[in-house]
Design brief:
Elements lengths: L3 E4 L2 E4 L4 E7 L8 E7 L6 E6 L6 E3 L7 E6 L4 E6 L8 E8 L13 E2 L3 E6 L1
Parallel strand pairs: 2-11
Antiparallel strand pairs: 1-3, 3-8, 4-5, 4-9, 5-6, 7-8, 9-10, 9-11
């Protein structure tokens, strides 16, 4: 069992930056693949980024590639999402999620644990 708590969301102007954090409880954090997803009003939850258990493999949605960076610090049980050059369409609730397998997967149903989400709002 692992609990995930996101932080770092807020209101930012287009072109700005935010850094999301996801703190995990439990000693087995380093065994989990970690992902970030987002959900905008009226839309389905979508994949944003994923990082393997040791940080050696990452993958991004095309919509954020080159602007967002996922990273993790296993000593701190924390995964991060650095978001630069934010656009209006990045507005959503952002969720971190943990996958108990070592696979790097992008479908929400593959993930076993979810945080409560943090709101990111990008204004013009």
């Amino acid at each position: 069992q692992v609990q995930l708590v996101e932080s770092g969301g807020g209101l930012v102007q287009a072109g700005g930056s935010l850094r999301l954090s996801c703190a995990a409880s439990g000693r087995t954090f380093r065994q989990y693949t970690m992902g970030w997803f987002r959900q905008a009003p009226g839309k389905e939850r979508e994949f944003v980024a994923v990082i393997s258990w040791n940080g050696g493999s990452t993958s991004y949605a095309d919509s954020v590639k080159g602007r967002f960076t996922i990273s993790r610090d296993n000593a701190k049980n924390t995964v991060y999402l650095q978001m630069n050059s934010l656009k209006l369409e990045d507005t959503a609730v952002y969720y971190c999620a943990a996958d108990q397998t070592f696979a790097v997967r992008i479908t929400p149903t593959a993930y076993d644990y979810w945080g409560q989400g943090t709101q990111v709002t990008v204004s013009s």
